[in-house]
Amino acid sequence: xxxxxxxxxxxxxxxxxxxxxxxxxxxxxxxxxxxxxxxxxxxxxxxxxxxxxxxxxxxxxxxxxxxxxxxxxxxxxxxxxxxxxxxxxxxxxxxxxxxxxxxxxxxxxxxxxxxxxxxxxxxxxxxxxxxxxxxxxxxxxxxxxxxxxxxxxxxxxxxxxxxxxxxxxxxxxxxxxxxxxxxxxxxxxxxxxxxxxxxxxxxxxxxxxxxxxxxxxxxxxxxxxxxxxxxxxxxxxxxxxxxxxxxxxxxxxxxxxxxxxxxxxxxxxxxxxxxxxxxxxxxxxxxxxxxxxxxxxxxxxxxxxxxxxxxxxxxxxxxxxxxxxxxxxxxxxxxxxxxxxxxxxxxxxxxxxxxxxxxxxxxxxxxxxxxxxxxxxxxxxxxxxxxxxxxxxxxxxxxxxxxxxxxxxxxxxxxxxxxxxxxxxxxxxxxxxxxxxxxxxxxxxxxxxxxxxxxxxxxxxxxxxxxxxxxxxxxxxxxxxxxxxxxxxxxxxxxxxxxxxxxxxxxxxxxxxxxxxxxxxxxxxxxxxxx
Amino acid sequence: xxxxxxxxxxxxxxxxxxxxxxxxxxxxxxxxxxxxxxxxxxxxxxxxxxxxxxxxxxxxxxxxxxxxxxxxxxxxxxxxxxxxxxxxxxxxxxxxxxxxxxxxxxxxxxxxxxxxxxxxxxxxxxxxxxxxxxxxxxxxxxxxxxxxxxxxxxxxxxxxxxxxxxxxxxxxxxxxxxxxxxxxxxxxxxxxxxxxxxxxxxxxxxxxxxxxxxxxxxxxxxxxxxxxxxxxxxxxxxxxxxxxxxxxxxxxxxxxxxxxxxxxxxxxxxxxxxxxxxxxxxxxxxxxxxxxxxxxxxxx
Lengths: 531, 300
Hints:
The structure holds two protein chains of two kinds. By secondary structure, chain A is mainly α.
């Protein structure tokens, strides 16, 4: 992006000339980067020896695409954005002008009509235009729906901004009901709606909420106390294994073990906290990373207890507070008690509300703690440790409480995770998970609960949505597996979002302590801590 | 005793590879104060480049002398990996320089994910085994030393000497050390800071590529996910030696190598990584800025 070209050459060259030059550079670099890895592929032959397969066509395509991208960016994209900035300043419509041009009423109507028409003729489409096009049209339909929703959000942005928390919670509470209702209408039966809702509630709802909860828990350590923790997944693992082992060996109920899992994770948080109290910055980062790896390696190697990399299976399901269960063989199965048909969707919907409640508990505790002395001490610690100590704050207990509180929520989430999966293995607790959670916290704008929730939705929901790109198979052939590209795109999205918004999605802060009037301050004024 | 010396030699080999990677971490940290999380994957990219070059050589020529083949693999891997690290720095880190501390860390993690998955997508997820390149083993008083190990130690020693000369005796090294101490002042005195930082990334990548080639030669197998563990170990080594200190990185690398080989020899092979990480934690409790690191002085 920021390629520095000497300024006198810039003034002489027109954007198009400059774009040619830049495109050539980009092409040369892309050729160098990709020649060995895209141009050639290492494959095993029948006798298991490595041989090279050649893919020069693909290489040329990629290089040409890079050049074209760079050319259009320099020749048209960059001048357009600069002009946009000037126009914004002139009209005074600074932040919203591009968006207000993007979200216009005619386009909105077109999107609505398109979505409705495509929904109405959904079943007839493959017959009309063929399978290939039908897949593309379904994708178009999804885009139209997203665009229409974005338009609605954009036009009501002032209202939404003012009542964001209430609206957000209401939307989250209503989400499974909405999904079931919409799908019931679609399938013309309530059972069809319940079965169809499994994917939407489980893959999107529960999955995203687990990450929201984890990120809110880590936010206490990183966002509030400013302690960089790269091994947060360790506490998640402690909670998960606490429930998995105690639940499957001793048959204890989830509701007893949930606090136990939280307490054990908090205990490990303090155990980790003690030795690292003196460490700062990146030393702390590596020790927490090492701690996370140690926990994972112990889980793999302590086979007598944890069953090694094979993992623990047969973890009992959560019960409805001991009154009803979700095992269809039990005498007090929810279907039998309430006299309704048997379905696995009840359990998923119940789990959704459970994780929603746990996540909201995390948020509630965080906002409450921020107003208490300990929460203020955390933020003071983040801003300036020396000043904090001079004012008589005990930094030892402050750091330890931050670690313990953050770890406790990680433990809760872990217990929930193992109850939901019914199976845990060390595979679920690799460093990548810690990195993803940390990325969500930072991308959300550290310390902002709403921003973190949005970031989790975008990053986790986005990667989950990439699983739905099967229609691309009809374009690129049967061997094309879009799933493979999921993590590649995830990594690139992390980079791009960070470059685009270095301060996170919600860059401003509402101070907890204020004089007379509460004013949002720019995120640039909050420190990220050194500890 | 023979057993001990044997393990010492194994540890030295392993430690050399870690040390070469650790230098990349520590140099980047010293000059711009960020943990380059993608460095472990840069190492893996280097190993893959060496692998592809090895296969090209194998398919073009009937037989190539081992030394020549290794040299070509190393040079191509160094060039290619440098290009990768240079591009990554330019695209993902430079725009965020001067932004807050965690921003480049997150882009680095993102780049690490992207790089390993890029290799997975383009080269396939399976392990890539190659036939052994050198297989001679010398037996001295019951201690077996393989030629591979000798090559690794000699190449590492030569590179470290060259590297030491570059950093301490050339104007480039002087510019690097100046940027490390005070970037703004260095810029005022006419040091091209951007260029110096780019070169630092290139040097780190070149050393990682050599480590990758040696890794491929030593173990004879590489997979797309192999960047993480050596990367974390090397990072541990850099921190153990005192991050920002070049002799510290080598010392830390050797220490981690020795701890690992000794632990697997005398205690249990399963817990060798746990031992390495635990010793890191213990050392840092008593020496919070590593063995050779300068304590960070906080000015109020």
